Amino acid sequence: AKTLFPYTTLFRSKLLSKKLLAYAGALWCSALTFTVPAVAQEFPAHEVNMIVNYGAGGTTDVATRALAQTMEKILGKSIVVQNKPGALGTLTPAYIARQKPDGYQVGVVTYSTVAIMPHLMDLTYSMKDFEFVAGFGRFRYGIAVNADSPYQTLDDLIAAAKEGKGLFFGTTSAPNNLAIFELTRLAGAKFEHISYKSGGEAVTALLSKNVQVIVQNPPDIMPHVKAGKLRMLASASPMRWPELPDVKTIKEQGFDIEIDSWLGLAVPKGTPAAIVKVLEDATLKSMSDPALSARMTQMGVDPASLSAKQYLEILEKGYIEMGRAIQAAKIPRISG
């Protein structure tokens, strides 16, 4: 009996240890079960900041503010919209990537800033630095000139650019750039580029004749077209604009160019999944509101309702496709 006692005690100790480990594991799992929903229930406990990557008054800004107004009713807390423009829209993603991953800093991270700009600039962030929340809009683009411009058609504009007449193009983001660069490649045209922080600034430059052509969105172009101050030469998107159904796409005019871009939200990598889900649900629920969809359509943004997974898939596919297009167009990287 004395010989067996130590082994019996050891055996019982192992059984006890296993039971304790099993019990501790069960408690840990239970804690997770109760903690994750609790995080979602407590968020947001105070106001949320939503950072826009372009200047105030532009299409991205106006569309984001419309979304924020609807989302804050769903979340029950204020959403403070701030603008952080510059570097062709890349300052906001760079800022968001560095923030605390708690869901209170939400950034507008667009197709151009994560699918296009990494091929053109040295950036401090990549797609892997974010948890994507949802996609909520699709841009349309158009090529416009002054109403009294001598260029009545896209062919006129291209012919003048090929002659080296020093045409200045006002640009605000990568998709806008891509349209003109592709025309340069396919038609042998040449434009001088001047960067602006918002569509509103680019339009002002066109109206004051500091530039001769812009590629912008409906809200930037349409009011001035209706006022007889601007003329649109082509839709740079895959589709014609419903506002100007007689204006053909670039592709319909003989050049294989289609510019597409999307609007979406993201938070820093590491943000708890439960918080991301709260923001995703609030975004998608907002986009199901007919009033918000109508407002965005009036702004010239086609409303979208893309889950985090769907938006990420578009960005990943776009990154590959845009990389090929930029390489084919031999677009130089932007220095500085």
Give a written overview of the molecule.
Helix 6 (174-187) links the parallel strand 6 (167-171) and strand 7 (191-195). Helix 1 runs parallel beside helix 9, helix 2 (59-75) packs across helix 9 (273-287) and helix 2 (59-75) runs antiparallel to helix 10. The longest helix has 38 residues, at 5-42. This protein has helices at residues 5-42, 59-75, 91-97, 111-116, 154-162, 174-187, 199-207, 218-226, 273-287, 290-299, 308-329; strands spanning 48-52, 79-83, 105-108, 130-139, 142-146, 167-171, 191-195, 213-216, 230-235, 262-268, 301-306. The strands form two sheets. Strands 2-1-3-10-4-11 form a six-stranded mixed beta sheet, sandwiched between helices. It is globular, with a radius of gyration of 26 Å. It is α/β, with parallel strands linked by helices. Residues 1-16 and 27-36 have low confidence and may be disordered. The protein contains eleven helices and eleven strands.
Summarize it.
The protein is of the alpha/beta class.
Write the layout of secondary structure elements.
Layout: H1 5-42, E1 48-52, H2 59-75, E2 79-83, H3 91-97, E3 105-108, H4 111-116, E4 130-139, E5 142-146, H5 154-162, E6 167-171, H6 174-187, E7 191-195, H7 199-207, E8 213-216, H8 218-226, E9 230-235, E10 262-268, H9 273-287, H10 290-299, E11 301-306, H11 308-329
Parallel strand pairs: 1-2, 1-3, 6-7, 6-8
Antiparallel strand pairs: 3-10, 4-10, 4-11, 5-8, 5-9
Helix pairs in contact: 1-9, 2-9, 2-10
